Amino acid sequence: MNRITGKLDGSMNRINGKLDVSMNRINGKLDGSMNRINGKLEHVMMKVNGSTTKT
Q1: Domain that residue 39 falls in
Q2: What's the pLDDT score for residue 14?
Q3: In a domain, 55, yes or no
Q4: How confident is the model over 39-44, as a mean pLDDT?
Q5: What is the mean pLDDT of residues 26-30?
Q6: Does position 1 have pLDDT exceeding 50, yes or no?
Q7: Does residue 53 form part of some domain?
Q8: DSSP secondary structure string for all residues of the chain
Q9: What is the number of structural domains in the chain?
Q10: Is 27 a member of any domain?
Q11: What are phi and psi of 45, to 5 degrees?
């Protein structure tokens, strides 16, 4: 979502004290859910890399 405006979903959610997982849920992606289970923010890094898929 924020990605469209040239911003990182992660940074917006971090400001709000939330995980990028919220954005991914809205977008219907699962990478956020996986990272949520792991309690990690790796999906934010993937956004930086220009990828929205979990690796």
Answers
A1: 2-48
A2: 52
A3: no
A4: 52
A5: 49
A6: no
A7: no
A8: -GGGGTS-HHHHHHHTT--THHHHHHTT-SHHHHHHHHT--HHHHHHHTT--S--
A9: 1
A10: yes
A11: -60, -40
Q: Are 46 and 53 in contact (CB under 8 A)?
A: yes
Residue 13 lies in a domain: yes
Are 9 and 31 within 8 A, CB to CB?
Answer: no
Tokens of 35: 């990272």
Average pLDDT of 9-33? 50
Residue 31 exposed, middle or buried by CB count within 10 Å (0-12, 13-18, 19+): buried
Report d(CA 49, CA 18) in Å as an integer: 20
Whole-structure pTM value:
0.12
pLDDT at 43: 52
